[in-house]
Amino acid sequence: MLLFLGCLLTLSSGALCLDQLNMCMNAKHHKVEPGPEGALHHQCIPWRENACCTANTSAEAHNDNSYLYNFNWNHCGAMSAKCKKHFIQDTCFYECSPHLGPWIQSADESWRKERILNVPLCKEDCEQWWEDCKDDFTCKTNWHKGWDWSSGTNKCPAGSQCTKWTDVYATPKSMCEQIWSNSYLYTTLTKDSGRCMQLWFTGSNPNKKVAEYYLNTAQRGQSFPVTMLLFLTAMSFFVTIF
């Protein structure tokens, strides 16, 4: 009981019993805990100081039809290099990021137990991604589900047709939010705001401070009910004793 009260007291003061600022998802290729990975490959290099991905995962993130998910970027003809670059960065972000704790949710899926939901992306990242892919083609809005996997890799489902990117995703917002089942949330926040997550960066990882901001905001919103719970639990404890 005293240990439980101590944990509640920690929560009421704005700290965490579990370190959501430095954790890995329980998913297909993620490490159990984040840590240094000095040999990360190309677009995944920014996470080398603290990563949830291994060097092998980072290398496979750059390959077409890699063993990670057998996903075919070229399902509607060859994807342009400038478009594919963003999907590689997106994969590195998903596989390597240790600061996604505020947005990790349980997932009832055969290939992972956790996922991310509504991660607030910086405006520049989402808009540049859409801009660099706008001349490409796809046959689906939500790339998480609905593919024909009969060949072992994803193909356009029967009855669908390859359509220009901008006809499938009219805006950067529609692309970022729909393509991975609302894993991302489009925002008008810019990178210098410190309130949005960057899919890719140079230098030290700016996303830790962003995650910390959202965790602290959530905790401030919960401070009254947590404090009240602490009070009621303490009262019950002392009534039992006396």
Number of helices: 7
Number of strands: 6
Q: Name the helix and strand elements from N-terminus to C-terminus, one letter apiece.
A: HHHEEEHEEHHEH
Give the low-confidence spans: 1-18, 226-233, 237-242
Number of domains: 1
Radius of gyration: 21 Å
Global geometry: globular
CA(first)-CA(last) distance: 15 Å
Mean pLDDT over all positions = 82
- Classification by helices and strands: mainly alpha
Q: How much helical structure, as a percent, in the residues? A: 25-40%
Approximately what portion of the residues adopt beta-strand conformation?
5-15%
Major sheet description = 2 strands, antiparallel
Spatial strand sequence of the major β-sheet: 1-2
Describe the structure.
The protein has 242 residues and is mainly alpha-helical. The protein has one domain (34-222). It is 37% helix and 9% strand. It has 7 helices and 6 strands. The protein has helices at 2-12, 55-60, 81-96, 123-133, 165-168, 172-178, 207-241; strands at residues 104-109, 112-116, 119-121, 137-138, 163-164, 184-186. Helix 4 crosses helix 6. The longest helix is centred in the last third of the chain and has 35 residues, at 207-241. The protein is globular and about 50 Å long. It starts with a helix and ends with a helix. 26% of the residues are buried.
